[in-house]
Amino acid sequence: MKALLLIAVSLAAGYGLGATPVVNENLHWNLWFIVPVSGLILGLLLGWLNFKGAYMLNLNVNGGTAWLLGLGAAGAYLMTEFGIYNTLMIPVAGVEGLVDGEYKLSALFTFQDYIAITLESSAYDGKGGTEFEIGGWATELTYGVDILACFFAAFGTQRLQVAKYPFCERCERYKMRDTVFEALMPSGDAAQQAFENLMRLLENRNYQQVVSFLKDLTMKSDSEGDIKITADQRFCTECKEASIIGRVFQNDGKDWKEVDDLAFQFDSKPGEHAVIG
């Protein structure tokens, strides 16, 4: 039911975008005339909003749920067409049987006819006032790519968020943030030794020692260091199971770059957070 609620919200958002003046005129963007990007943008936005909603509802965005919400995002892209069709006003002049004026698109065409016309061809303004037109098959192809991009962008965004926000399946709720540890250290033997000590503690699965080590590392942080360790500690408010999600960064002189191979995650036993927290 929670997933269906989020899908309904996505569909309503899609309809709302299509029904909004100015916005509905810019819902189908193509880079270099042929590379669709609207579905990608909408998918990223809906994926982010879906996860925020799932977090509030304590809905675990596992693989199956992420697929459903992704399909909802793709459906939202299609719903923009219903919004356009039901609200867009177009000028009519010199048409037999109709008084000159503005009419809703839905009063002049069936939805099927509107879609058929939309997919017939696409015209774009080029440089120097020239007009560039692509045929129906290319228009249908870019439209299909847009829908797929919307689905995969929403799906991927949701799955990326899951990695940052651990879910307690035992209590069916997301874990709350307790502390974010952050320590800087210069690269070299000391940093290597710190990593080895941390990995050993993680392998031994001693939650208290891991937290104590991270606290000590934070207290000894060197502001001139070019290696950074961050550890986000979260816990379930019901069973007190804790999760520590760690990332390692290195400064290349311009910016911090994540070292993917050194990322780590640790889950305690139920009740252990109460000992530390």
Structural notes for this entry:
- 27% of the residues are buried.
- This protein has two domains: 164 residues, no CATH class; 102 residues, no CATH class.
- The longest helix is centred in the middle third of the chain and has 29 residues.
- About 3% of the residues have low confidence.
- It is elongated.
- Helices cover 50% and strands 22% of the residues.
- Helix 1 packs antiparallel against helix 2 and helix 2 packs parallel to helix 6.
- By secondary structure, the chain is α+β, with helices and mostly antiparallel strands.
- The strands form five sheets. Strands 9, 10, 11, 12 and 13 form a five-stranded antiparallel β-sheet that branches.
List the helices and strands and how they pair.
Elements: H1 2-19, E1 30-31, E2 35-36, H2 38-57, H3 63-87, E3 89-92, E4 101-104, H4 105-108, H5 111-118, E5 122-125, E6 131-134, H6 136-164, E7 167-168, E8 173-174, E9 176-185, H7 189-204, H8 207-219, E10 227-235, E11 242-251, E12 256-258, E13 264-267, H9 272-276
Antiparallel strand pairs: 1-2, 3-4, 5-6, 7-8, 9-10, 10-11, 11-12, 11-13
